[in-house]
Every structure is written in C-alpha cells, then in structure tokens.
C-alpha cells in the first residue's frame, strides 16, 4: 500500500503562518530601515564594495565610466568615474559615497551615488582566484566569461547578455535551481558510499537520508555565501530546504502551496528580493514546471521528462519577449540546449578540475556566432498583465492551462513572423 502525501495547509494553519511571516517581514524591514538611516545620517559614508560591472557611457557629449558595485550586505549601487579610471572589474574598493538624496525605496532596490575611491585592493579574493584559474584555460575572454558566470556567478559582459538572450538560454548562464540540483546530485552520489560505510558499522540507527541532506545543504550554503547569494540561487536553496522538510513529513512537494510558502518565507527574510527581476523570473520558471506536473501528473514519467522543457519554454516566452524583446530564428533551439546542458554543466566542472576546460571552446564560439543576429520583438506590458492573470487562474482550471498554451503559442508565431 502506498501512503498518499497530504496537503501542506488545511484549516487554520495558513492564518498562523501568514501572521508569523508578517512579523518576520516587519522585523526584517526594521533592520533594513536602521541600516538605511546609518547610510544617510551624514553627508558621506565609507563602504567596502566589489565591482560587478565597469563600462563606458556617453551622456551630453561627456564620456565617463560607470561602476556597478555590491557590498557584503548585498547593497547594490552605481557610481561614476573618470574615463581614464583604471580597470577595477571584480576588484574590492573602499569608497566614500554621498547618499544624502537616496530614498528608502532606492536603498531597497539600487541607486546612483557620487563617490570618491579611497582604496583599490590589489590582492585577489578567493572568487577572483577562481576566475583567474578558469580564465587560464581559455584563450577567448568571452568563453572565459561564460564559465566564470557558471562557476562563480560573475556577471556576463553586455554583448554576451544580448547574444544569449537572442538564443533564449540566458537562464542557463544565471546560477539557479537547475545548477543547484545538479550540484546536489553530484554531492549526494559522492558522499553516499562514504557515509554508508560508516553508517553500517557505527551508527545504523540514524536516518541516512537526513544526515546526507544536512551535509549537502551545508556545503551548498557555503557555496551560496561564496557567490554573495544571487537571488535565483537563494530562492533555489530555500526551496530545497523547505522541500526536504515537507518530504520528510509526508507532505506534498509538487504543490502551489509549497511554492507560495517558499516565496513568502524568502520575501519575509529578504524583502529586497521583491524588487529583483531575476528572483521573479526564477519563481516563474518553477511555477510553470509545477503547473505542468500538477495538471499532467497522470501521463507517463518519460513523457513528463520530454514535455516539461517544451512546456516551460513556450509558457516562459511571453515573459521573455515583453521584458527583454530579444528573439532570433535560433531561439526555439533553447529547448535542445537546455536538455544538453544537463550533461554539459557537470562535465565542464570535471574538465576544468583536470585541466581540460577548453575542450568545448570551439562549440561555444559557434554558439555565440549564432546569437549575434537577433532582432527586437516589442510587445506591450499590458499583455504581460493579461498573461499573468490567465496563468494564475490555470492553477485551478485545466481549461485555462490550454488557454495559457494557446496565448503562448500565439506569441511564438508572432515572434517568428516578425523576424522572417
């Protein structure tokens, strides 16, 4: 007899959970507001930050450099520098910034502040050492940048962002739940035989799945901290932990309640993520995976495995077009690239560890050349609102799932027609 897993919430539990989440959110916002008041208390403030992006910009016939920086507290802001300012990409700086006009909303999102660079730290951080090691295995700096994005969450340069958006594979270059799942599986299969050896001899009474999960989660937490907690990876990590806790207690994991619980929990603890586009795109991807698995749970597992990437591609396309507008004739091939990435990602990690990281450079250079000829497909935001409404109703009605697919396919046909 197979025991059926139960729903997460039944009667009064949602009210208790929401009250608790509201309390946590209020406390998190209070801490953020105290930090904001510290930042804006005086005319200037000294911060240590790492340079995420550095590029030239011309405005009103004046050319200067823009620096995008992130502090250890995940505060993200922009500042300017002279055109002749040295290359400090990925380096740690100490700056005196002038944030007097920064509002609390700006503080929670991103803001621009005038600044003076006080110190440029020349010694490499651990993340820079990893990036240097990765770059040493490639002659093409664009290829090195791709692997740095995959292994250390280093931002891609602007041209690569546009190229991969044209190809519809931007989600593969942003470390998220997919990458976390692969890393979890690798760790699990590496640790399991060693743990089982000790488990059978010294502590057979312990729950081996729980012990291995705690170890894997701890290693992933260290990796998350090393990468400065990117939004998509943070969402995936919290969902991994929540999913295991629910699984361990016999509660359904593939459930919109689970997804909603994770969203509320993350936003209560990290309210700044409410303004993160990457966070909401990551949530959207999981939403459409769950939508498929809930409404088509009775079809064979093999068909589920084959159809999920196609369903997610089609249903995410309207969001991609409205927000980014980039499309090319090779965009639909992202379904194939996404499936192949399941093999490529762990293999590329192993190849870099043994010194053969450049094995796929020629393939990646060909892929880059395919994405250089995309076009812009402009679609109004009103369509995004309509599409989001239909998608949410489809949680309760399979007819609306078909309507969601019909609207998505209409977007797809329009995009193909627009570029041909």
Instruction: Report the oligomer.
Output: single chain
Output the number of helix runs.
16
Query: Largest sheet, described in full?
Result: 6 strands, mixed
Mean pLDDT: 89
The number of E-state strands comes to: 8
The residue fraction in helices comes out at: 55-70%
Can you tell me the overall shape? Answer: globular
CATH architecture of the domain at 39-123: Beta Barrel
User: In CATH's first tier, which class of the domain at 39-123 applies?
Assistant: Mainly Beta
- Major sheet: order of its strands? 5-3-2-1-4-6
Q: Strand-and-helix sequence, N→C? A: HEEEEHEEHHHHHHHHHHEHHEHH
Instruction: Calculate Rg over CA atoms.
Output: 23 Å
Membrane topology: Multi-pass membrane protein
Keywords: Cell membrane, Membrane, Transmembrane, Transmembrane helix
Protein name: ComEC/Rec2-related protein domain-containing protein
GO cellular component, one term: plasma membrane
Describe this structure in words.
By secondary structure, this protein is an alpha+beta fold. It has a domain at 39-123: OB fold (Dihydrolipoamide Acetyltransferase, E2P) (Beta Barrel). It is 60% helix and 12% strand. The chain is built from 16 helices and eight strands. It has a six-stranded mixed sheet with strand order 5-3-2-1-4-6, with no helix packed on it. β1 (45-59) and β2 (62-71) form a beta hairpin. α9 crosses α10 and α9 runs parallel beside α11. It is globular. The termini are far apart. The mean pLDDT is 89. Residues 162-417 form the ComEC/Rec2-related protein domain. It is a multi-pass membrane protein. InterPro entries: ComEC_N, Competence_DNA_uptake. One of its GO terms (cellular component) is plasma membrane. The chain crosses the membrane at residues 172-191, 212-245, 251-270, 277-296, 302-324, 336-359, 379-396, 401-419.
